[in-house]
Amino acid sequence: MALRPAPLWLPVMVAMSLLRGSCLGISSHSLKYCFTGISEPSQGQPHFVLVGFADGQAIDHYDSNSRRMKPRVSWMEKLGKEDPQFWDRYTQRVRGDEEVSRLDLETLRSRYNQSEGLHTWQLMYGCELRRDGSKGGFYQYGYEGRTFLIFDKETLTWVAPDPQAQITQRKWDGDLGWNQHWKAYLEKECFDWIKTFLSYGNETLQRTEPPVVTMSSRTEVEDGMETHVCRVHGFYPREIDASWMRDGEVWLQDTFHGFLAPNADGTYHYWISIQIDPKERGRYRCHVEHDGLQDPLDLELKEPTDSKSNLGLIIGFVVAALVVVGVIAGIVVFINRGQEDYNAVPRRNQAI
Fold first, then answer.
1. What pTM did the predictor assign?
2. What confidence tier does 11 reach under pLDDT thresholds 50, 70, 90?
């Protein structure tokens, strides 16, 4: 059965899932790249977009409208100052990726027996250096917002979830050199680039900003229960432990969690809420731990001053988080120094 075309927002959501699954602490660092191809762009949406992320922050960007790879943070501009041909070489490499993405879209549309229309193709890969010293790396393709192929670097093979992907799987499993190239990148070169970017963006990527924690409380008019929202704002890095405590123990019952989302200044915000019996208010605390804090914070619950339902308050936080996601989506969709080639984004010279 033919697949239906994917909605325009699918590549955005795939890219956002990449942002959500990252590091574990201040000494955890990641480098990730997200490619998105769209068969029929509309409303200014480019055919092809590439965004690089260091520790979840967009650092460079290419799209098929400008056809130029450009830095998105000031410290990446240093590369072009030290090597005037750097961005030109980078641009030429990514233009090749753009052409491969167009070929892949046509191949996949034919392979799935689909008509012309809106179809989406994604490629994501990267590596992560975790706080405990362990390392991780991934390389995967998506089509129409679903997983198409995943590279298993331990076995040098590809995992295919459906018959259409198995065609490519058999071809690439037979190319040992191609698979060894990506294993080497994911296990060594990618981590070399993390160290390089940390040296360039030290003040940004290795800074700490402590969270500002505030509490809002309301009484529910329907049943007299109280809803308390603990909002954590302006912290960096993104890893944070925020939880409700009851009698000194973590309490999960009747709790809700908001999005961990970025602010415009590169910091993050988050919220958690809980609904309780007002008679037990004194038993609860909002507990926050973060690398920017010398000691954990414990905020006690206050008696609500407004009897209106807290539903609007919670919706407000959700909407705010979605607005920020939209801002990042606008970004998403659209160095060993002295090297002759830019290998943080290796050449993808194989079409599906």
1. 0.71
2. very low
Structural Rg of the chain based on CA atoms:
23
pLDDT at 77 over 80: yes
- 314's enclosing H/E stretch is helix 311-333
Q: Which helix (H) or strand (E) holds 277?
A: none
Q: Is the pLDDT of residue 351 over 50?
A: yes
Nearest to 148 by CA among 254, 6, 259, 51: 6
Which amino acid is located at 224 in the chain?
Answer: G
- How far is residue 115's CA from residue 224's CA, in Å, rounded to a whole number? 56
Token code pair at residue 319: 């909407």
Indicate if the pLDDT at residue 284 is higher than 90: yes
Q: Kindly tell me the sign of the dihedral angle through the C-alpha atoms of 168, 169, 174, 176.
A: positive
Which letter does DSSP use for residue 69 in this model? Answer: -
CA distances from 320 to 155, 167, 202, 217 (A): 43, 43, 29, 18
Kindly report the number of other CB atoms within 10 A of residue 69's CB atom: 23
CB contact at 8 A, 268 and 235? yes
The widest CA-to-CA distance across the chain, in whole angstroms, is 69
- How far is 168 from 158, CA to CA, in rounded Å? 9
